[in-house]
Amino acid sequence: MGNMLTSDLVRVREYNASVNQIWKHYQELGKYSGEGLRKPIIGSWENSKKLGINPFQNRNHEMVNGNDLEERLEKNAELLSFAAPQMNHLSDLLIESKTMLSIVDQQGTILHSSGEQNVLKKAEKIDIYNGGIWTEKSAGTNAVGLVLRTKQSSQVLYSEHFCEKNHDWFCAAFPILYPYTNELLGVINIAGADHQVNPKKIQYIFSAANQISETIRQYFFKHALQNHLFLNTALEGVEEAILIVDNGKSVVEKNRAAQSHSILSKLQTTTTIPSLNRLVETVLQTGQALMREAVTVDSQKQPFICSIYPVTFQADTLGAVIFFRKNTVSPTLTMKKPDSPRSTKTKTTRYSFDDMVGSSKEFAAVVKKARKASSIDSTLFLSGETGTGKEVFAQSIHQASDRRRHPFVAINCGAIPRGLFESELFGYEPGAFTGAKSIGQQGKFEMAQGGTIFLDEIADMPLELQVHLLRILEERAVTRLGSNKPIPLDVRVIAATHKNLAKAIEKGEFRQDLMYRLQVIQLRIPALRDRTSDIPALVNHFIRKMSNEFGKQEIVVQEGTMQYLTQYTWPGNIRELKNVIQQALFNMEGKQLTPFDLPPELMKQPEPGGDEKERLIEALVKENGNVTSAAKLLNISRATMYRKMKQYQLTAENGKVQK
C-alpha cells in the first residue's frame, strides 16, 4: 500500500468528494477527461462499461449458493484450511478497525469472511458474504476484480467503485499465487465502510493481509516441493534443460541449463515450437504426463528427448514442467512408448509397488512420493536405517517407470573389494590390467543401459573413486579402464545409504559435490518403530509367504504374541521382523503362534499384562508342578513349555506347593 493511497484513505471526505464528481461526469458523458483518477481505476471503469455493468445496480450480477457453493468450498478445502486460521489471528484488530477480511477463490467467489459484526451485517446488503461473486463482470470496479484480472495487489476507495452502491466502502485485495507458475489460487480482501479510519490501524491491517497472502504462498511452495518432485528437481543444478510454463503455455521459469541454450534461453512461449506445443497442450488438457518424446527445437534439427509433467493443485492444472535431454542413444531406445504401468516384473527385479505392505500415514506418504518419483528420470537418493526396504523401493520405482523393460542393476558399494571397484562399475578394455579378460568386460553402468542402476550403501564408496562417479553423473557417459572413448549412457541412478552423508562429509569420507548430485530427489524410508500400526499386516504377510516352508497352514497369531511384536523397537526393522517370524514358525507346534514361540530377545521386554516368567510360575503352581497341564493352561506345546522353563531356569518343583 503506497503512501499516497494511505493519505487518500485518511482524508476520505476531500478525496471522495473529488472522485465522486469525476464519477458523475463519467456516467453522464460516458468518458473520462482530466486528472485526479488513478490509471488502474480508469482502466477498470472502461472495462466495466464494456462488460455492460449498470452503475446503479442494487445487486451483483452473479451469486452462488446451495450445492454450487458447497462444491466451491470443497474444491478449495486445502486453501481454506490454511488461510482461515491465519485470518482468525487478526480478529481483534478487525474489530478495532471496523473492517472485515475475506478469502476469495480464483473465480471471485467469497468463501469465508470474518470481522466486526456490524460491518459484516452491512456488507451482506451489498453482497459481501459467502457466495457473493466479485469479478468486474459481476460487480464492476472493485479490488478483488482488479486482482483477478491483473494478479497484482489492488485498492479501490469509496467512489472509485464503478457501482454507486459500493461508494461507502474501501477495499484492498492481495493475490495468492502458486509458486513457479504464478497461477492465481485466490485473493485476500480487506473491506470497511468507516469514514473515520485510524491510519495506523488501517496501515497495519493492510500489511497483515498482504503478509497472509505471502505466508500462504510459502505454504504452497512447500506443497509444491513435497507433491511435485520434478519442481524440486528444477531448482537443482541438474544437467537437463528445464522449463516451467503456466496454463497459457508462457514460459515462467528456466533453469541454468535452459538459460545457456541458444534457443531455449530466448523461448517465451511453447507456441513457437509446434512439435513441443502439441505435447504441452495434451498435458494441460489431460493432466497426464508425457515421457521421452522426441522433439526438435532448433534449425540444426538437433533432437531432444522431452518429458512433460503437469503441475496441479486442487484438481486444477496450473502449468507444466518440461525436461529436455539430448538424444545421444539409439532411436529404438528413446522413441519407445511406455507400456502399461502394471507390467510384469523383469528378470532383473523381484519387487513392485504391489509388494508394498502397510497403510500407516508415514508409510503411505513415502509410497505416494515414490510413485511420483517413478514418473521422472532424475537421480534419486533413498535414505533410511538398515532393513527398512530401500532396495524394495528402488526396484518398485524402476518397475513403475518407463524404463521397466530395461535392466535394473544393483550393486552394493560396501561389498566390492577396493581394488575391483573401478572395473566393476566402469568396465575395462582387453589387457587393461593383469588378469583382465581377453575380450574386456562391461561395467555395471553399461549393463544398466536404458534402465536403472541402484548404488546401495553409496557412503562406502572409496573417496578416490567418487570423482569418477561425479563425472558420470555430469557427463552422462562412462569410459572403460584402458580406453579414452566415452560411451554415452541413458541410465537412471538411484543411490541409497543408511549412513548420515553430512557427517561423512565432515569426516572427509564423502564428497560434498557428489552428495548434491545424488540428492536431487530424496526419499526417507521410515523405520519400523515409526510405523508400528503396519506390524500386524507385515506379520501376516510373512506368515503367508513362509508358512509352507515349515509345513504350516491356517496359523493363528495369539493376541499376546502380536502385542509383543508391536511393542518391540525393531532395531533391524523389516529385515529383523522377517527373521523373527521365520524363527517363530520353526519353534511353534500346532496352529497357534504364541509368545513362547518368539526369540528370547523379544521376551526380555516387559510382557503385555505381566511378566512371562511369572506367568509360567503361576501356571505351574495352579497345576501343582504338572508341566503338561501347565502348558495346556498357557495354550502352548509341552516342548515350548520346557524350552521356556529352561530359559528362566525353572523346574516342576517351582510349581509344587510347599508343605
Automatic annotation (TrEMBL):
It comes from the Bacteria. Pfam families: AAA_lid_14, GAF, HTH_8, Sigma54_activat. Residues 356-586 form the Sigma-54 factor interaction domain. The keyword Transmembrane does not apply. CDD domains: AAA (cd00009). SMART domains: AAA. GO terms for molecular function: ATP binding; sequence-specific DNA binding. Keywords: ATP-binding, DNA-binding, Nucleotide-binding, Transcription, Transcription regulation. InterPro entries: AAA+_ATPase, AAA_lid_NorR, GAF, GAF-like_dom_sf, Homeodomain-like_sf, HTH_Fis, P-loop_NTPase, Sigma_54_int. GO terms for biological process: regulation of DNA-templated transcription. This is Sigma-54-dependent Fis family transcriptional regulator.
